[in-house]
Specification:
Strand content: 15-25%
Distance between the termini: 49 Å
Bound molecules: pantoate
Radius of gyration: 20 Å
CATH topology of the largest domain: Rossmann fold
Shape: globular
Number of helices: 10
CATH class of the largest domain: Alpha Beta
Number of strands: 9
Length: 291
């Protein structure tokens, strides 16, 4: 006989507080089910749906969370503009096979008097870290809360936010949180642009130029294979090229060790090329392995 959760309609798949979430999780655990979590901030796109598919390949039941986390946005960032359409998001997540959507209120994540911040050093020192002060503290804190609220066996994060993925791996390792963190490959548009909720900010003209970030990163990857001791110059040329193409500013183009994110002057294997640049109001990030 199908369980109560399986008989639920789409709106009933939403839980809005930790008590209801825990009741569903407890029922699944009683039935011997394993549970996967896909944390999101909504504005669901095909990239998120691929995370649900990945979670389903590891677990019997999948929870997706939707929470636009204020603490990971800087003062001049897009928190107020962040696209919100819960009904559409829930429908898309459900169609992709999500069993339960956790939409906590702000009071479930940051109740009155909340005063804990999780701050991770090392992997946060470079790349987006200096350009988004406090961002990874916000991410680590909210992800710790979501993991402890949902108690999943597996949690899936996209490699598009590769630095975030490493931050979360460090978080669960350092705090002994009992969950497997799975990284899922970047999903791209046909022209190479990495899928992102923030691509919606691009005008038609900006959208046409945006895939150049990926093209330039690929050319950096090829160049460092040919000239492994020339990483700095290759990245500097790539930054100039992005500005010439029409990016408003370039935060970084860098070749880093894929595990420590240490900046590499000389490429010697197991590296990725990372880039962040602004196109109109959108800050685009991307990364690719050097292979
Ligand atoms: O990647 C995101 O969408 C967010 O950073 C996350 C992991 C859901 C935390 O708010």
């Amino acid at each position: 006989m199908p369980s109560t959760v399986e008989l639920m309609s789409v709106p009933d798949k939403i839980v809005r507080n930790v008590n209801d979430l825990r009741a569903a999780v407890t029922a699944w655990r009683r039935d011997g089910k394993t549970i996967g979590l896909v944390p999101t901030m909504g504005a669901i796109h095909v990239g998120h749906l691929s995370l649900v598919t990945e979670a389903k390949s590891h677990c019997d039941k999948v929870i997706a969370s939707i929470f636009v986390n204020p603490t990971q946005f800087g003062e001049n960032e897009d928190f107020d503009a962040y696209p919100v359409d819960e009904a559409r998001d829930v429908e898309e997540l459900s169609e992709a096979g999500t069993d339960l959507v956790f939409c906590p209120g702000r009071e479930d994540i940051y109740p009155e008097g909340f005063s804990t911040v999780i701050s991770i050093s090392g992997v946060t020192a470079g790349l987006c870290g200096p350009f988004r002060p406090g961002h990874f503290d916000g991410v680590a804190t909210v992800v710790a809360k979501l993991l402890l609220q949902c108690l999943p066996d597996v949690a899936v994060f996209g490699e598009k936010d590769y630095q975030q993925l490493l931050v979360i791996r460090k978080l669960v390792k350092d705090l002994n949180i009992s969950v497997d963190i799975v990284g899922a490959p970047i999903i791209r548009e046909d022209d190479g642009l990495a899928m992102s909720s923030r691509n919606r900010y691009l005008s038609k003209e900006e959208r046409a130029l945006a895939p150049e970030l990926n093209r330039v990163l690929r050319s950096v990857a090829n160049a460092v294979i040919e000239k492994p001791d020339d990483c700095e110059r290759i990245c500097s040329l790539a930054r100039s090229e992005l500005l010439e193409i029409g990016f408003a500013s370039v935060d970084y183009v860098a070749v880093c060790d894929m595990n420590s994110l240490e900046l590499l002057k000389i490429y010697s294997g197991s590296a990725r090329v990372f880039g962040a640049a602004r196109m109109g109001t959108a800050r685009l990030i991307d990364n690719i392995p050097v292979t």
